[in-house]
Amino acid sequence: MERLQKVMAHAGIASRRKAEQMILDGKVRVNGKTVKELGVKVTPSDKIEVEGVQMEKERKVYFLLYKPRGVISAVSDDKNRKVVTDFFPNVEERIYPVGRLDYDTSGLLLLTNDGEFANSLTHPKFEIDKTYVARLKGIPTKEDLQKLERGIKLEDGMTAPAKVKLLSADTKAAKAIVQITIHEGRNRQVRRMFEAIGFPVQKLSREQFAFLTLHSLNAGESRELSPHEVKQLRVLADTGKRR
User: Active site includes 102?
Assistant: First the structure.
């Protein structure tokens, strides 16, 4: 279920703030009953009328984007920087990112107009695995990486245990490439975890989200999720089962 004003906004009726005012003004009916409160939630089967005209619901869409570095995980930016929705000029639905990737982080990002779906995938209780590949300054030892595997204390608390694997090490350049899998989504978490053990991240990419990968995509390219993939993600979120 989603808030009525959010559903109206996604359907292109008005901005969310204007939709809220329309509700307060008694211009919206749900299943034949006038609604004047902002807390009302609706389901896809509810009949919504705005000023006497039945609202056509926006179809639900689901996309996977290979986000390049230097792009904002948002639908707009007050500094006029490139945002992830710029890569979908022909998509009529009002899509937005599921979670976020930092400006200087590339990799797999989902976008949708399905609020319930997005919330289920980003809620921390569902523990959905996200795998990153990081290029580090310096070469961590096995003991260093074990600190991340056990969980490490950051300024906002202990992290959950991570899965960590050293992929390669260049002793001459004093650099390493490490794969790390976490299920939390704190701000700049992976970067802060490596900084906490003394190895700053020079480059970071999210390579996998649950069972989804970047296979066959280049930076800036995207594809629509298949119905089966969407169903798998729903099951994963509903069960809270980690993969």
Answer: yes
